Every structure is written in structure tokens, then in C-alpha cells.
Amino acid sequence: GAVVSQHPSWVICKSGTSVKIECRSLDFQATTMFWYRQFPKQSLMLMATSNEGSKATYEQGVEKDKFLINHASLTLSTLTVTSAHPEDSSFYICSARDLRDKYEQYFGPGTRLTVT
Amino acid sequence: GEDVEQSLFLSVREGDSSVINCTYTDSSSTYLYWYKQEPGAGLQLLTYIFSNMDMKQDQRLTVLLNKKDKHLSLRIADTQTGDSAIYFCAEMADTDKLIFGTGTRLQVFP
Q: Residue B4 pairs with which residues in a beta bridge?
């Protein structure tokens, strides 16, 4: 149990276009999902916390107009990178917290975004 | 603010024990975690320990917590080549967010 999927697993897009990444909890309900960004050989940096039915909370330094997060249901959150630039190229990972257990987060497999 | 530090690299021979260390600064941490990340993949939760415990053992994994020194370690017994990966410690502070360490790359050689 406790599986989190991400789609797509990798994507290449041109500068100026927008890309949407989906994060789904497959076998549990998640009131809270988290979006992280990871640069090569670096740690995970939390970008935002997404709560079902309300606006996401962004970490300091993360542009909310550039990284649009929507958490419309208890099993789905989406991250849209708008007007992507090469510096947005990174590995994006989501995690989901089970409604019944606030101390454990389950991570998705990640999405590699390359902006050309 | 919160800060979690790890050594960057560890190399061990197959069959030996590995010890990965982590220090953190936030004394209000409630849970501390160890995650494993293989190349190009997400994070796999290995184990976690509540802050009022000082040790937890789970098969080949032993977690030691020294709350006074804010030091956490992960010992992997009988390390195998399949254990080669990056290991992250993380703390959950009172904000309920996970703060990740810098990651330790474990390399196991035959």
C-alpha cells in the first residue's frame, strides 16, 4: 500500500511553454501533498505544501505565479511550471501524507524536466 | 533556522557495516527519518524514530539518536552492493514539514 505516482516521469519542453506534472496517491487519501525540487547531486528543497481544497503554501523564494499548484481532490495534486526556462530544468518530486498518519510521507518516483 | 548536515560520501566493502551520520539543529524535532534514493528515482522511507527514543532496530538497520548532541546515525549491517545509493536523513519539526539533510552517497565495493 501507500503508493504515490507521478506523471510524466520525464518531459522535455521548449522555453516559454508550460508543463503540468501530476501527483497521485493511488491507494490512500492525502489531505496534504508536498512538492520538492532536486538539483543534481543535491538535497531536496521543499517548494510548496498543497492542501486539498485550499491554496498552496509556498516556501520563501518560490514564485507562486510560476509554479502553479492545484490540489483539487484527495488523491491528485498538480504542479504547472509556467513559461519554463532552462534554469527550471530539474527533478521534481512530490510526496503525500496519509489522512490517518501525519508523521509519514510517501514519495513519488519523480519527474525529470528538461527545458531547451 | 533548521539545518541538517551529513557527510557527503562513504565507501565500504561488501559484508562490512556502514554507519551514516547526521546532525541537526532543531531541538523541537518530533520525528527523524532515513530515506534511500537510487539514481533517477524517488525516495524510499527506510525507517524513522520518534524523538523520545534513543534506538530503533529493524532487520539490518539500526538507528541511534543522541538528542542531547542532536546526532542521528544509521547503521547498515552486512552491507550489500544493492545498498549503494544516496541516504538522506530528515527531521520533522513542529511545522510538520520535512527538512532534508545534504545526503550521503554510499558506495559498496566487492
A: B24
